[in-house]
Amino acid sequence: MDAEITLHVDGTARHVTVDARTTLLDALRERLGVMAPKKGCDHGQCGSCTVLLNDRRVITCLVLAVAHDGARIVTAEGLAQDDHLHPVQQAFIDHDGFQCGYCTPGQICSAVGMLKEAEAGWPSAVSDLAAAEVRLSPAEIRERMSGNLCRCGAYAGIVAAIQQAAR
Fold this sequence. Notes:
With 167 residues, the protein is α+β, with helices and mostly antiparallel strands. It has helices at residues 24-31, 87-94, 104-119, 138-144, 155-166; strands spanning 2-9, 12-19, 50-53, 56-59, 72-74. Strand 1 and strand 2 form a beta hairpin.
């Protein structure tokens, strides 16, 4: 059964007809030509398809497009404003937070979402619950980003980039 939905992708309303079983990732890539989210494992294990969905990070290969009719989606391409990179994007460049770049859009979106979660005081598995606020130590960042894998092993640069952006 097909359904017509509207997705607001990087600030633009996009209308698309999809089969009810179509993942958000496939709707973005195959139906709308949005190439920032990458299809890695297609099982929710690598995080390369991560976007911000209504300001929350979401692994798009695990959600159905029809469930998000009218949603606001921001990809790594939509984070920049005019000619200015988002602070997380700039930090990834400054700290060589990528090598091949395949996972980078998902890593960047996840980092932006993770920083919002930490700012809101959401704890992680390694958070000090007695502390008044979340302290983004390298261990805290690694835990919060653990759903995003990098086959090249650029983790040191990714952690440094997120620490810079958090400042």
